[in-house]
Amino acid sequence: MAKEDLYRPNVAMIILSPNYPNEKKIFIAQRNDIAGVWQFPQGGIDEGENPKEAMFRELKEEIGTDKVKIIAEYPKWISYDFPEKIAKKMKPFKGQKQKYFLVRLKKSANIDINTKHPEFDSYKFVDIESVLDYTAHFKQPVYKEVLEYFKKEGYL
What we know:
This protein is α+β, with helices and mostly antiparallel strands.
């Protein structure tokens, strides 16, 4: 397996409230399998899918709606390694390479995390400055880099 194959292709979404740009709050959800761990919705890219298609599918699967407007896309793929405990479950992958999208929920969107295969048991919108206070330590460097990019570009 080539080195790049060790990272699972994945999309991740930074979801802004429907009141953006007047209110710059970001959606985070608590995983239902690890108490106290919050994250952005994310998921694997299926074979034959492009990142945008995967993004809309994952939104529907994880938060029950794909009614979003794409605001921006992080210009490159970014990767992280799984902690050892997670890596054992995710073999043969040692981590994920992700394509990030910044999206705004449409006013008509109805979030429903009680989906067919629920991944989250709670969600909330938080200020940009406090997102990293909730998220898993191994994802924080990626989250920080992506959020800083969107801030620098004037989106956040």
